[in-house]
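Subject: Protein record for review, amino acid sequence with backbone structure tokens
How to read it: Take the token row as a discrete description of the fold.
Enclosed: The protein record, placed directly beneath this head.
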Amino acid sequence: MKISSIMHKALIIPALFLLAACDDNTANLGVEVMPDGDFTVSTQYDYPVGIESLPVEKILARSTTAYLGKFTDPYTNTVFETDFLTQFYCPENFNFPDQELLEDPENPEARSVELNLYYSSYFGDSLAAQKLAVHELTRVLEADEFYYTNLDPTQYYDKDQAPLQEQAYTAIDLIHGDSLYASNGVHMLSIPLPKSFGDRIVKAYYENPENFKNSENFIRNVFLGFYLQHTQGDGAVLNINYVYLDIYFDYKVESSSGNVDSLVTAYTQFIATPEVVQENRFSMDNITELIEQGNSENVAYVMTPAGIFPEVTLPIDDISLNDTINSAQLVISRKNNLNVSKYQMGAPNELLMVRKSELNTFFEEQQIPDNQSSYVAYLSNGQYTYSNITNLINVLRRQRRDNPDYDSDPDWNKVVLVPITEVTQTINNSSVIVRVLHDLGLNFLKLKKDDVKLSVIYSRYKDAQ
């Protein structure tokens, strides 16, 4: 064993000297013996991108904001009109006072009824005269159905029946003291409804309180909701935050004498909330003429809420099928509007990129941008920059490479840029997107068609150059 050990040490010593001799030049150890083809280089290519104006007749209608009014834009010559259908929330185990406390226990009735619309903003002329009509719904708005902004309200109310109420209004009500609310940044449009409508609601409670146990029972058995229809006028659109149905009634309370004989007036509220269905109807006229004008100016348009979205054709047929893509970036620039009209539409801050074939399902399934098949760009320095859409490009590239009929669908390589509003929550001190909604504000923007390019950076083997 001793001789074996000595021999082993003897073999190690020359090897150590050999390594020491090479130590002066070890920086490229391993590289020198690789073939030239193992080197990789990064190369950028720019591919022209097609962008067009896509007319959009409908978008998913549900929103926490209701819109009412009409506005004709002198710059684009488009006509936007909107109104809405809404249900009302009934609190769990709702109750009116005991029937014997009513002024006339044998004849429960309301004192008065008001439909109150609260809004913190509007677009257009504050004094434009307009008119609305309140129709009672005749059909349930189902919570699990998808309603789009081109819905036909006549399917939900009796158009041959006179409206419950009609009322003229302006965005700023100088006659009825709107400034009382405007001082807090909130305006109110109050619509008195027939007392008979309130009587019906009050009587329904005392006939069967179970119908007021929750919103489902209330909506199906007592009151389906309202359609607030824009009927006349042009010049302003209200952005309504809250819709309240206030029912006033009288009942007795204990007086200073100790007897229950003092009559007081109280009211109860049924509110349009996210727990029930509220749907907007939009119509936009003269869109085709506007798009033709944009084509002559070599621009694509963004017009919301339901009007025009940019449609982008990604140049997948021009992209290498085999090289590794390090990054793919798309930058789209706005063009300033030479608009001198008094009422200027805004520019959407966020544009969602989603495949054209997935446009409706994205919102129906309440998806959020995943940086895989959907992306968001924010308006900054006059540009929307999609900094790295590599995942989407690779998916389309595989489709082109592996499917012989890849182009049988003319929209296979098309995406749509959709103005959105993000709903965020703070989680672990970070703001997280929890929901994405269509931007329903009045916005208009021109995008330059010329010089739009997809910039792709490849990694390639040196011998592939």
Observations:
- The first helix runs from residue 2 to 22.
